[in-house]
Amino acid sequence: MRHGSLISKRAIRVLGVAESFKLTHPKSILTGVVMRSDFIIDGVVNSYATVGGLDVTDSIIGMFKGLNRPDVHAVMIDGCIISFYNIVDIDRLHSELKVPVMCLAFSRSRGNPRAAIVKLFKDYEERLSILDRIGEPVMVNTKYGPVWVRYRGLSYGEVKVLISKFQRDGRRPEPLRVSQLISASMFRSMYGD
User: Which CATH superfamily is domain 3-191 in?
Assistant: First the structure.
């Protein structure tokens, strides 16, 4: 089935992934929420990523496959550069998961991540290579304001429709809002403030 026809369905499902971390802890908490476009939560999955590592893509693949849910039609991630420069390789996610993938940001990037990566990491060439591949985010105007998105597997128009389907009270789509709430709660319960 073509992805475009999926976004026109009344109650499609996405996996929304968000994280919580602090530099004082070696692992971030990743939470994925399976949500239907009628805002019914249909599943939850958790994992970890190394703060400052390069394993977040593997973690998200493991989360998606661990769900064993062929009815999940797309993946939304709260950011492509998360857990202190642990970069999400959306090309690899799209290739391995065989569903559309998008990373969303809710403010325009400030600073120079490339310079920070070169300064902070010995494996900066690998990180910069991933950053080059995933490209710059594009602005998508929604009824709640702009969202910056990197995406694979959908057209710009389909991305706009899919984001809008999952927005309820603000720019952040509900699967990301709920997954961030859960990951933050788990982080606090495991590590404290």
Answer: archaeoglobus fulgidus dsm 4304 superfamily (3.30.2170.10)
